Amino acid sequence: MKILVLNSGSSSLKFQLFDMPSEKVLTKGLVERIGEKQGNFKAGNAIIEKPIANHHEAMQLITNYLLDRKNQLIQSKDEIKIIGHRVVHGGNRFVQPVVISEEVKDKIKELFPLAPLHNPANLTGIETAEKIFPNAIQIGIFDTAFHQSIPIENHKYAIPEKFYKQGIRKYGFHGISHKYVSEQALKKDKNNKKIITLHLGNGASATAVVNGKSFDTSMGFGPMNGLIMGTRSGDIDQSIIFYLAEQKNYPLSEIKNILNKKSGMTALAGNNDLRDIEQRAKHDDIQAQTALKMYANAIKKYIGDFTAKMNGLDALIFTAGIGENSTIIRKLTTVNMDFLGIVIDEEKNQNPNEFDGEIQASDSKIKIYVIPTNEELEIAKQAFELYQNNI
Ligand code: AMP
Q: Is there a catalytic annotation at residue 189?
């Protein structure tokens, strides 16, 4: 069965076509700069550059590519039985993947204020796919859903109760990725009962996973909290916000922009690309070296927090662009952690692939894995599972 996975952003549309249950990727690609002067479409060897006015036009390009005979992907649109959509925010409502209905779409709309950048774009993707593939079953998979298992003592804030009743709580994000990599670690060893997954990409979050379920996570009500990221601050003292607003007359919109877009590694090292910062650090650039240490320390803080709350740790997982590729960050994050039983093998850390992604030293009590994330496959798997069980 062919499942199309869509990840719709405000000006982009990424897609992958899977054959399930074989999990074979039949094709993948993306449309970028939708709504801008010049857009582009890339998939396989195909590149199209032209203005792409909206998501409907983007979806048409994808459909034409899928139907193009020489690509040998599908003969007719009806071959795509399921479309799995990544939806960032599912609030308290969505714990599992769901078949998209009018009611589900209304709920996704209701959640716009909680994810103003993502949910509107995700809904546009769903509505576009419904029009172009009217016979496919549309399924929503939510990035927050995995974290709905976080117990109340780990998801509630110590602020007046009325706000909790209004839905102000920790939701957590990157759930599709945390779920995928923690399941991979459980497949490697069923004794991996207490896991910390480190999704370190441009956005970054850490999650404590107990017996396959999210138990705590570093992002909170929104995705700015927790670890230091490419352009986001991670944890800061709230009083900074009030000081900037009240004493320095910064409008709230500017503070939000600073904390979202001008902070993190961009603020610390003038750049959000870790490859560049690493190069500078190697050449004794103190600013870059400090930025890397701060980045690693923010992660250590959560390793300590989660290990204490879980009363132990079996495995640590590095994933996403930085987690999968940065030897230096993996080293800085795990150095001087032997008191917790975390000891990395320097040689294995240089080349995790050669060691099946397992890079702890022989005297490490804790397993250390590098596991490539695959959010699209996770979406396809969850959509397929829902289809098999309920439809
Ligand atoms: P993602 O959001 O998962 O695509 O990750 C993006 C981040 O991964 C960026 O900060 C990149 O600099 C970083 N990244 C990608 N490749 C490497 C690499 N080889 N070494 C270090 N960082 C990398």
A: no
* H helical segments located in 170-217: 175-188
329 located within any domain = yes
CA of 108 from ligand 1 middle (Å) equals 30
Q: Which residues are CB-neighbours of 199 under 8 A, at least 6 positions away?
A: 174, 177, 178, 181, 205, 206, 207, 319, 320, 323, 373
Single out the residue of 230, 186, 188, 179 nearest to residue 207, CA to CA: 179
- The dihedral region occupied by 311, where left means phi > 0, alpha psi between -120 and 50, and beta the remainder, is left
User: Whole-angstrom Cα distance, residue 74 to residue 182?
Assistant: 33
* pLDDT one-digit tens code per residue, 146-172: 999 999 999 999 999 999 999 999 999
| 226 found inside a domain | yes
Distance 78 CA to ligand 1 centre (A): 37
**Which of 265, 275, 331, 374 to mutate for ligand 1's pocket (most ligand atoms within 8 Å of CB)?**
275
62-99 pLDDT, tens per residue? 999 999 999 999 999 999 999 999 999 999 999 999 99
Which DSSP category does 212 fall into?
T
Per the structure, the complete domain to which residue 69 belongs is given by 2-142
- Burial class for 281, CB neighbours closer than 10 Å (0-12, 13-18, 19+): buried
